[in-house]
TrEMBL record:
PANTHER family: MONOACYLGLYCEROL LIPASE (PTHR43798)
Name of the protein described by the UniProt record: Alpha/beta hydrolase
A molecular function (GO) term: hydrolase activity
Species classification: Bacteria, Pseudomonadati, Pseudomonadota, Alphaproteobacteria, Hyphomicrobiales
Stretches assigned to coiled coil: none
Keywords carried by this UniProt record: Hydrolase
């Protein structure tokens, strides 16, 4: 069972949990979630012999922070230092992926490997969206302007859990209930207005040498799928996988597909098996 921990830093109290022993694996959640999105992966990896760590960033989950100047990158570095983790594999979803990339650029000696799921990328240009997605975003902005957080939460579940071009409610059951609870907590927290801007990674991401697994759901936003393809070409030491019938959060939506892929990559990075060859990756659908 995972052990909770707290880290106090610059007036903030970070909530997290860790479990297991072995190669450290640090999970970085999406912007519409918190550390609970990784529950399945945390349990399975700890049982497989990895030291797993997840925490809620400022503005998410159980972490509490005043509205002061901060950097998610500085927070991550400080939390790792306080937990005595020198180097790790970083598994990041969406905004968590962008943070993992930025960390790898600033701290290559501490980055054993990366797993980037529907990743964002700092410095990326504003995307062009399909008309169907624009209409949903119009409804989202209308709800935001009127302070209707319940509607905002449901619309964001459509965008990020179902997929912007998929039917509303495509994903139901426990995954949807957890999404609404996690994102509901984000929406209920006071806004943090003083995040420090990070150096853009878009022009230097290709210099990351750490082995990288790129994962994206085929039902995600078109620009995220395009970014996935671009990164697979720019990052020479990467393996790129597109998962069918999933959207932006495949680790939450279909852990039974995501977890074996993650474990195979981690075993390769840890030296438990041959580095994942192309044939193995192709079985899960290489981009």
């Amino acid at each position: 069972m995972a052990t909770p921990f707290e880290v106090r830093l610059d007036g903030a109290t970070f909530s997290g949990e860790s479990d297991g022993f072995g190669l450290p694996v640090v999970f970085l959640h999406a912007g519409v979630a918190d550390r609970r999105m990784w529950e399945s992966q945390m349990t399975e990896l700890a049982d497989a012999g990895f030291h797993v760590i997840a925490y809620d960033r400022r503005g998410h989950g159980d972490t509490e922070s005043p509205d002061v100047p901060f950097s998610h990158l500085d927070d991550l570095e400080a939390i790792l230092d306080q937990l005595s983790v020198h180097a790790a594999v970083f598994v990041g979803s969406s905004a968590g992926g962008a943070l993992a990339i930025d960390f790898a650029i600033e701290n290559p000696e501490r980055t054993v490997g990366l797993v980037l799921v529907g990743t964002a990328l700092s410095g990326s240009p504003e995307p062009e969206l399909p008309e169907e997605a624009e209409l949903i975003l119009d409804a989202l902005h209308y709800a935001e302007d009127r302070g209707n957080t319940g509607s905002v939460n449901k619309i964001e579940a459509h965008l990020w859990l179902d997929g912007p071009l998929s039917p509303n409610g495509r994903v139901d059951g426990p995954a949807r209930a957890l999404f609404l609870d996690m994102n509901g907590k984000v929406l209920a927290k006071p806004k943090l207005t003083q995040e420090e801007e990070r150096e853009p990674a878009v022009d230097v991401v290709g210099g990351i040498a750490a082995p990288t697994l790129l994962v994206v759901g085929e039902l995600d936003f078109p620009h995220i799928l395009e970014r996935h393809g671009d990164l697979s070409e720019e990052m020479e030491n990467s393996f790129a996988v597109v998962l069918e019938d999933t959207a932006h959060l495949p680790s939450l939506e279909k852990p039974e597909i995501f977890n074996p892929l993650l474990l195979e990559f981690l075993d390769a990075v840890a030296g438990h098996s041959d580095v994942g060859d192309d044939e193995d990756i192709d079985e899960d659908g290489e981009d």
